[in-house]
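Sorry, can you check?
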Amino acid sequence: MSTFSNALLRHRVIDSCLRDTKRKYTLVDLINACSAAIAEKHPGKGLSKQKVSVRSLQLDLQIMRDKQKGYGAPIVVYDHKYYKYKDADYSIDKAKVSKGTLQSIYELADALKHYTSFKELGNLKNIADVLEEEISAKIQKRNSVVCYEPKRNSLGMEYFEVIHDAILNKKALCVGYFSSRSNNIMSIIFYPFYLKEFKGRWYALGYKDGLNGVYKLPLDRIRDYSYSILPFPDDYSFNPDEYFRDIIGVTKLSGDVKEVRFLVKNKLAPFIKINPLHHSQRLVHLHDNGDMEFTINIIPNREFYNLVFDYQPHIQVISPRDVYIAISQNLLYF
């Protein structure tokens, strides 16, 4: 486990404690809180009985106070034993990132960039390149020469870590979520096992108590949660490669895989050729005017139809007939 990652976790726990105005925290209290957080985040790694040392905690406080290496946090001691922030509104999240911290992040990004040469980590290359440039620009105090589109939908991301932890540690959740159909908050018992992003929106996939099949829960619909006393069933399993192989997005309907043939007008065709709608896409015919015909093998779902609608009028579904009819009927409402 990374020492740097451990230190960041301790800093966040200390920050949370010092912002808590309803309780007084001694050095021992801070040690216990940090130790508990590390044990919870890394279960089964022999850390549940290990406590953060007094020296480590004191160094954390010292670094957090430091304006050059840390956050310049206004940590004070009162009554000779309790710790708090002199400014009750302070948080390290509001602090300016120090040059030392930026340098540490840059070194991590540089190391990550080297590891992306491995085939298994190739998907991280673009992330590593962007991260390295962003941090480099901050260190050199210049404008970044790289721009990436920020997430347009950040709602629900406060539940990401909760869902992620529940997946790793097989925890059942009682989730309150907003139902667009009933326009009310609904409560379900949810057994999550996978997180997936699609077009800027995050989904938790899992099993809903009392319902067969995979249930998808958009994180932005979650309103509250608690941990259920129900055990996570041992026989629940999920194969993401198999689940996502024949679909676009996250919705898997019942039915057979269909070979969908579609024509793309010449203005959009080169883009679709190098940015396929699905990994199974094949070019089957090139027209003299530059139009292209492709096939994909999928189970048509809402995400597929929405994708076709987004590209109108440059994409026309040719076959099978039921998919063509579904597209035609829905286009009447656009």
In short: The chain has ten helices and eleven strands. The chain has a mean pLDDT of 85. The two ends are 52 Å apart (CA to CA).
